[in-house]
Structures are given as C-alpha cells and as structure tokens.
Amino acid sequence: MAIAPVNKFLSIAVPVAPGEQKLYEVPTGTTAILLYAQVSNVGIGQTYPTATLIHRRESRSTGNKRDIRVIKDIEIPPNDAAVLIDGRLVLEKTPLTLDRLFLKGVQSGVGTITNVVYHEPTGVATVTTMNPHNFNVGDPITMSGIAFTCSGSTGITTTIFPDPQQSYVVDEITNTVGTSRTFSAVIGRSKGYPHFYNPAIHYFVRSRSNAVTTNTGTQFTPSFATYTGVSGELVLTLGAGHGLRSATTTHTATNAIYSPVTGIMTVTVANHGFSATDKIKFADGSITFTCAQDNHGSNHPYPRSTDYPSGKWLDISNVTTNTFEAVVLDTIPSTYTGIHTFVSATTNGISRAYSTVGIATNSIIFTCTQDGNSTEHPYPRSTDPYAGLNISIASTTTTTATVNVGTSPSGGLVAPLQMEFIASILENSTA
Question: Is CATH 2.40.30 the right assignment for the domain spanning 248-353?
Fold first, then answer.
C-alpha cells in the first residue's frame, strides 16, 4: 500500500545579521517549496539597508556550487518591507543536488569584534569592538561569525556563534556613547560549559603563482596555508626540498660608519661568516652615535622605532671577512647630512637569518568565519604589518615553512538590528 507524502508547513523568522547567513537547508528525503519571503526595515532612523536572497545549489558529487541571486541588493525603506518571494521556489535535496537559502544584508553601523568574555552561568557576554560601537543601553543588536572554543568533556570543538541566528539587547556599556568600545548582553546559558573567544578562523582557498620569494631568489607557489590569529603564525606548504632554514644567529658590532648622504652603514663584526644572500636585522637602539647637529654633545641610539630599519630584515652587500654594508634609509639623502660618530653597540644587537621569505601582496587567498566564509580575502594587504617585507623563518618541516606575520584579534561582526526576515516554506516528504 502506498503512503502519501507528509506535508509540513514552516515559518522562518530571524534577524538579518551582518555578512551572509544561512536561512534554510532542505532536509534529506524532502522537496521544499518557498511560498513567501520578505525583509522588513525595523531600524530606528532613516537608514536604507539592502538585502540579497541567494539560492545556492551544490553538486553533492563534486562539491561545486552555483549561486542564483533570486533578488539582489533590494532596498528597504524605513518602516517598510520588501517582498523577496511571492510565489513558488522549489528546493530539493537528492543524491546529486543540495539546495540552501542564504541572505546577505548590507547596513550601516557594522563593527568588528576583537574580544568576547562569556560568563557561565549568568549567560552574559562582554564584547569589545575595534572602534566605538555607538550603542545605547536597550538597543537591539545582531552579531555573527564569533568563534568560540568549548572546553571540558562536551565533545564540542570550535563553534561559531550565534547559531541559530537571533537578536540581543545591549544590557550595559563601558564609558559613554560615542567612545565606548565595550558592551554586555545576555546571550543565554550553555548548560555549565565555559566558552573561550578565538579570533576569526581562516580557511585556505588558493595561492597565486610564485607568491613566495626567498632571499636567494627562489620562488614557490604554496599548495596550502594555515593562519592562526592568536599567534600570528602562517604555515606555508611549499613542497619537499624547499631548502629553507630556520636558524638565526646574533652578533655584536665593534664599529659602524654611517653615511647620511648615501644611506649606507658599514658595520664591523669580526669573522662574522655572512654571505651576500643573508639578511640582517638591527635591534632597536642597538647602535649608538653622536652627531654634529648638537656638536656631539649627546648619544643617539639607532634605530628608533620610527626609523626605516626598525623590525626589518635588510639586504647586505660588499661583504668582507669582518665588515658588511646595509642601506638604512628609505629616503636618500637624509634630511640631516652631518657627521655621525660611532660610540657603542649593544651585545648581540644584530641578528642574521639564513633564510627569509617575502610574500607578494594579495597573493594568498583565505575565507574566514568573521563573515561566514562568504567572501574571499587576499593577503597580505598593503596595510598589513609585513606587506612588502622579508620575513625570517620561524620553523620548518620537510614540506612547510612557518613565518610570523602578526597577530589579529578580529573575530566576528556586530551591528544594530535593522532588518528582519520572514518566510513560509512547505516541505513535502519524498520517502
């Protein structure tokens, strides 16, 4: 005897969070019909946010995805709503196909989260933002893309909050509106399990050709990369036989001659063993001079934190048994070209790296949990700390090299509640 399919009516009502959020995935053994969907502008004021509804069809055999933008960047006027679907959109899950619905909202007031302290058992989260958040106590807000690690014996690894999506209310702020970067909200208990904030988790997508160049001129195209925001470590998979070395040595200068006209400093280190392909770095304040500007009346340690060589691995040239040259200016000649006289150098103030790498700008592509892995992010950006610089190798394996490109506390987005989504779905069992 045949059994008739069972119909199930669903109503979905969620706030629209910053970034891209998944609204619905067709269950196994079900064909679904999206009957109606709308987005309402519930914000206070005269904002005009936009929304894009995406039907994402994925091939379950290949993993290839296709985004069908049912409606794109529709504007929602204040205290009004926009109808996204008024009819029938058929969604299915078969051995070959998986259909899901996503919503991408664009609104004002989106801020970047840099820390969350979650208190269990009260269920209160204290959130820190990169810039002033401008929230008042009582404001409804949405958050997205916050990575937590849950400790203990729960069996839960890193999870992304909130899931499912919901709105919250600002309970308290630190300092005053306009300057405050910290607020608290009640997000609910977690059955006694503490949660710990993580910066955004990055997922490697691809690398551009010859993204990595070593100090010897060898180029590599990484086949994989991992970045950890807490430590700043970037692990590059370069393949067997990359030949990079993590060893560094330290040395003490016994003399230095600086030419402000050419920007060249000639440094004396007895029997240093350097080669022309090595990189060196001066510790801040490790070389002390006097200068004619004050008639050699005071000592001046270099480099200062604002000087060009500070924190940089520099090329060397004209290497002899006991000396080498390095360019220590980025603008030549110096604004002051008077005579500098060497006074002293700190012990082990010069570091030598056998291997360094430079990573081409925008050459390594990641997605991250901060925006739900919805967009690709090329690194390093021109504004990143090590963009355009040579980086020493922290460690190696037979196939990888690890460098430190700087920490990142960013992990998650927060915004005032401006949009709410509602939809009606009819599920039809195919069992």
Answer: yes
Instruction: Tell me how crowded residue 122 is: count the other CB atoms within 10 A of its CB.
Output: 11
- Alpha-carbon Rg for the chain, nearest whole angstrom, is 29
The Cα 347–Cα 253 span in angstroms is 8
Burial of 425 (0-12, 13-18, 19+ CB in 10 A): buried
Q: Helix, strand, coil: what percent of the chain each, to 5? A: 0, 50, 50
Task: Output the pTM of the full model.
Answer: 0.77
Give yes or no for a contact between 33 and 425, defined as CB atoms under 8 angstroms apart.
Answer: yes
What residues have CB less than 8 Å from 322, skipping those under 6 apart?
A: 268, 269, 270, 271, 272
Task: Give dist(CA 333, CA 349) in Å, integer.
Answer: 25
Distance separating alpha carbons of residues 233 and 402, to the nearest angstrom: 7
170 versus 404: the higher-pLDDT residue is 170
**Residue 369 phi, psi dihedral angles, 5° rounding:** -70, -15
CATH code at 7-107+419-429: 2.60.120
Give 357's strand partners.
214, 391
Q: What is the pLDDT of residues 315-346, one digit of tens each?
A: 899 999 999 999 999 889 988 888 999 999 99
Q: For 171, phi and psi rounded to 5 degrees?
A: -95, -35
Strand 212-214: give its sheet, edge to edge.
219-220, 212-214, 356-359, 390-392
For 292, list phi and psi in degrees, rounded to 5: -70, -15
Domain positions in the chain are 7-107+419-429, 111-200, 202-246+356-404, 248-353
Average pLDDT over residues 143-158: 72
3-state secondary structure of 91: strand
46 vs 102: CA distance, rounded Å:
26
